[in-house]
Amino acid sequence: MTERRLIGRTAAPGLASGRVAVIGTEQTVRRVAGAPADEAQTLRRAIAATLAEVTTLAGSANGEAADMLGFQVALLSDDELARPALAAIAGGASADSAWMAAMGAEIAGYGAAEDENFAARTADLEDIRDRVCAHMAPGGADAAIPDGAVVVGADLPLSRFLSIDWRRGGAIVLTRGSPSSHVAMLARARKVPMVVGLGGSPEALAGHEALVDAGAGEVVLTPDAATRVRFEARRGTAAVAAAALDTWRDGPGVTADGTRVAVHLNVGDPAELDGLDPAICDGIGLVRTELLFHGTAGLPDEAAQYEVYRRIAAWADGRPVTIRTLDAGGDKPIPGVTVDDESNPFLGLRGIRLSLRHPDLFRTQLRALARAAVHGEVRIMLPMVTIPAELEAARRMLDESISDLARDCVPARRPMLGIMVEVPAAAIAIDRFDADFFSIGSNDLTQYVTAAARDIGTVAELADPLNPAVLRLIAVVARHGREVGRDVSLCGDAGGEPKLVAHLLHAGLRSLSVAPAALARAKQAIAGTDLRHPPP
Ligand code: PEP
Ligand code: MG
Predict the structure, then answer these.
(1) CA-290 nearest atom, ligand 1
(2) Structure confidence by residue, pLDDT tens digits, 358-399
(3) Ligand 1 pocket mutation, candidates 181, 422, 497, criterion most atoms within 8 A of CB
(4) Where are the domains of the chain?
(5) For position 57, what pLDDT does the model report?
(6) Residue 27's pLDDT is what?
(7) Does residue 334 register a pLDDT over 60?
(8) Ligand 2 centroid to 158 CA: how many Å?
(9) Pairwise CA distance, residues 237 & 246, whole Å
(10) What pTM, to 2 d.p., does this model score?
(11) What sections of 261-387 are H helices per DSSP?
């Protein structure tokens, strides 16, 4: 086979090589049929596992989500659902091929129904089909992706990204996708090379050996010997450059003219802090707690959340730890919590809007945070705040939670309560928000100011934090913080982009929060900024 070179866009730099595993198609037939009795047992176990999963989700859902999950629970509990597949298995089919075929017929029947309510259920059935199928992959859903594979797809759902163990290497190549999506952001944080916008069909890459130079946006399929040698040489050079950059990691953030800039860390999973010395940063500027809510174990309860927050506070060793309340929605759906059929999820029920609609879920999180505040300087940050009433409602709920904890003699402390500034309405009228601190979410602020969605690659060029409209809003918020004496930081990805750092500091920011993987280059960029001269 001859070598083929494809060009896309960088979403997360880095080099990786491996065999392509196409996501989506691994849902199709992949098991070889065993004895019919074993195949039938495989299917029954997968249905039981899915039923347990969906029942857990249904337990904490309400509204439309509860209705949808209730329908799925009823279907999965009905022996009739598996009957056609079991008949095919008795005839020699493998469990997954029988299931896919039977569900295909069932879904087509629902889709063709005159009754609109029936037709609308096809998505629920597709979801059940895929969940059960994933449980039939040898070893479960994750086993469908071999270690170190180059994962290829049209797009990659956040939940799928989180289910893959990237410590074993690998890369992501998407035919669509966007460099500013949440998956791209996590890929950068976890140093998973990622290329987006390749075009064409993912299936065309299936089964090939691939070299990915994500920094150059390049994917080489079936590389020849000379290309492999050049690739390995580039890998060596990159490792040397990374080691040189790392020397910037430990010192404080200081500009060329001697101005101190606080540099905090963004974390999604406390494991990202393992092996890191807290002295390399000024604290934690953002914990994306919604990532704790992904996975099959259901929504974490107060004790589980408390344990995670406590662990991060203990790691920080007295430094401030800013923990953001659940920011689900947009491109971070959580089954059973977020709304499935919004026409424009980024403008819908996400962040604080969603938490206020799920008071039980929100109260659980506030209680866990107030309890963790006993172990360090925990601060609570609300995402997607648009109007002051949202901050006030959250404050009232926090007060109530603290009183409840005191009444029950549970040790707790009242954390500071701040807001993310990522909706233009908040940035423009920042003086209306009586928050204890502010943190600018440049990712969302940029997408909303430029009307260019962060998950749509074709408009990625417009979603530019250097747009003067974005920088002016950042300057407005920084000035307000100085005037009222409250902290202003920036926790969007812009803080870890060397070419943006000087502009952010010139806009008045003196505090940034970046992914651990971006810490060294942020400090290097700060050291290269001279505030006595305009940015380049
Ligand atoms: C942001 O919007 O800049 C931000 C930090 O939040 P997230 O990327 O999680 O939406
Ligand atoms: Mg945001």
Answers:
(1) 9
(2) 999 999 999 999 999 999 999 999 999 999 999 999 999 999
(3) 422
(4) 4-24+142-244, 36-136, 247-527
(5) 67
(6) 44
(7) yes
(8) 15
(9) 14
(10) 0.77
(11) 302-316, 352-357, 359-372
Domain covering 4-24+142-244, topology: Glucose Oxidase; domain 1 (3.50.30)
Ligand 2 centroid from CA 361, angstroms: 20
Pick the closest to residue 264 from 487, 490, 417 (CA basis).
490
Catalytic residue annotation: 182, 491
The alpha carbon of 290 is separated from its chain's Cα centroid by a whole number of angstroms, namely 8
Say what the pLDDT of residue 29 is. 41
Q: Which residues contact 30 (CB under 8 A, 6 or more apart)?
A: 96, 137, 144
Q: What angle do CA 46, 51, 57 make, to 5 degrees?
A: 130
pLDDT-derived band at 125 (thresholds 50, 70, 90) equals confident
Same fold: 4-24+142-244 with 36-136: no
Residues within 6 Å of ligand 1 by CB: 185, 286, 288, 327, 422, 441-444, 491-492
Distance CA 83, CA 189 (A): 45
Q: What tens digit of pLDDT does each residue of 303-318 get?
A: 999 999 999 999 999 9
Minimum CA distance residue for ligand 1 atom 5: 492
- Which residue among 188, 291, 420, 423 has the greatest number of ligand 1 atoms within 8 angstroms of its CB, and so is best to mutate? 420
Nearest CA to ligand 1 atom 6: 441
From the alpha carbon of 288, which atom of ligand 1 is closest? Answer: 9
From the CA atom positions of the chain, what is the Rg in Å? 24
- Ligand 2 centroid, distance to 299 Cα (angstroms): 21
> What's the CATH fold of domain 36-136?
Enzyme I; Chain A, domain 2 (1.10.274)
List of residues 6+ apart from 343 with CB closer than 8 A: none
What's the CA-to-centroid distance between 441 and ligand 2, angstroms? 5
- CA of 136: how far to CAs of 70, 143, 147, 203, 484, in Å? 23, 10, 18, 22, 58
CATH code 3.20.20.60 for 247-527: yes
